[in-house]
Design a protein that fits this description.
Structural class: mainly alpha
Largest sheet: 2 strands, antiparallel
Number of strands: 4
Shape: elongated
Distance between the termini: 83 Å
Helix content: 55-70%
Strand order of the largest sheet: 1-2
Length: about 425
């Protein structure tokens, strides 16, 4: 039985790619999968001798098979501001496949063959998942430990860019480890890889870093993440990337959402007090300033969306930003593409910051009236936007005193200097 694994081992040693640099990378022949399958078919019952053997047969085989299974990152998970993984619907998965190889190199697709052999291997080992495989003990050490032993020398700051496939394999393994004890044992290695990839100029490398950070946050305790100033170091790296523009848009969305989730570790609302959310507030002010200066509509829409998430999180603590929120909305409604998202933001502000809305009612009413003027001339048939404005007016009416909204509209309708058709349009909002 061990002889079969010896044959497999001799096959994959010369055909593995993860430990070959980019310059010496070469594709393999499909026949090797048939040979491995033939050797595995000779195996019948699980043999404990395989796990007590001094030679590690399973780790190199697993790495070889994972080489040919594409790495997939769910962008919906990375762009979500939810910290609870189970709150993110799996039916709306938006998968992205990073390509770490140079553009002039490609790999043949042997995913089906690799997965077939992996299933066969699972049956032989009497397990069902990759995580169970990684937790199997080989010479008293789990398989994932042996895999890391093979990969770590290739993933140093000075060598990682020469071994992109090794980086993919590392993420494959971490992706499958969900037990906090396993992640804790490898935390220092994972943490260093997060920093290395976050600092890399490649967007695919940065997305890998964000994915690893998200995985750590979901499966490790906040104590582990805060230990030795780790969370602050990561936060600094994330903030250094916020200035990037011109990249593919999903990266910017993922970066904003990861920064939002990471701040929850640094400033947990459980420890509330007078100085709560200081760092969060600094970041909010930066986002408001960036959004006002942003010329790219899609980037500004992303900033408006993440600011809504910050408002939801801070609740009444966001009152300190109310003037700047209104300034941003006032600046955004001139653009038709941003008008709806701006009013969604305004509605949330009115609902959450209700105790202070009466003080700012004039500024809010000016924004609404100015927007109605543009709607009347540019998109009078936009029913969804008009309904959203009506909802904002209802909420504003509930948040103000002395029938303020109706009186303001009535005075405008009675202004004879305004065009009659525009006054009739305003009448529909009463």
């Amino acid at each position: 039985m061990t002889s079969s694994f010896q044959e497999i081992s001799s096959l994959i040693i010369s055909n593995s790619s993860y430990n070959k640099s980019i310059e010496s990378y070469d594709s393999i022949d499909q026949s090797i999968f048939i040979q491995i399958e033939n050797h595995l078919s000779k195996l019948t019952d699980k043999d404990d001798e395989l796990f007590s053997s001094e030679f590690d047969y399973l780790s190199p085989l697993l790495l070889f098979l994972l080489e040919h299974i594409p790495l997939e990152i769910d962008l919906n998970v990375l762009t979500s501001t939810e910290t609870n993984y189970h709150q993110i619907s799996s039916t709306t998965r938006k998968l992205y496949k990073p390509n770490l190889l140079p553009t002039n190199q490609s790999r043949p697709d042997y995913s089906f063959q690799s997965q077939t052999i992996l299933k066969h291997l699972f049956q032989y080992l009497q397990i069902k998942t990759l995580e169970e495989f990684l937790q199997l003990k080989q010479n008293s050490q789990p398989i994932y430990f042996h895999c890391f032993h093979l990969l770590t020398p290739l993933l140093l700051k000075t060598t990682y860019h020469q071994y992109p496939i090794a980086m993919e394999l590392f993420v494959h393994i971490i992706k499958s480890l969900k037990q906090s004890s396993s992640l804790s044992e490898s935390f220092d290695l994972i943490f260093s890889i997060c920093l290395i990839t976050l600092d890399d100029p490649s967007i695919d490398m940065k997305l890998i870093s964000l994915y690893l950070l998200d995985h750590l946050q979901k499966h490790c305790t906040s104590t582990e993440l805060l230990l030795f100033n780790r969370a602050n170091v990561i936060m600094y790296g994330l903030e250094q990337n916020l200035h990037r523009r011109g990249d593919r848009l999903p990266f910017f969305e993922c970066l904003l959402a990861t920064t939002f989730r990471w701040l929850i570790i640094l400033e947990n609302e459980v420890y509330s007090g007078k100085h709560l959310f200081i760092r969060t507030s600094q970041l909010i002010e930066r986002f408001i300033r960036d959004a006002i200066l942003e010329t790219n509509i899609e980037y500004r829409r992303c900033l408006l969306k993440i600011l809504r998430s910050y408002l939801n999180r801070l609740q009444l603590f966001a009152i300190r930003h109310l003037n700047h929120f209104l300034e941003l909305i006032d600046d955004s409604i001139d653009n038709r593409s941003l008008r709806y998202s701006s009013f969604e933001f305004l509605l949330l502000i009115i609902q959450i910051l209700k105790p202070r809305i009466n003080v700012h009612r004039l500024d809010i009413m000016k924004i609404i009236i100015r927007c109605l003027f543009r709607i009347f001339h540019e998109e009078k048939d936009n029913v969804s936007l008009i309904n959203l404005v009506k909802t904002c007016l209802k909420e504003l009416q509930l948040s103000t005193k002395e029938n303020y909204v109706q009186d303001a509209f009535q005075s405008l309708i009675e202004t004879t200097e305004l065009d009659l058709s525009y006054r009739e349009f305003l009448q529909t909002f009463l």
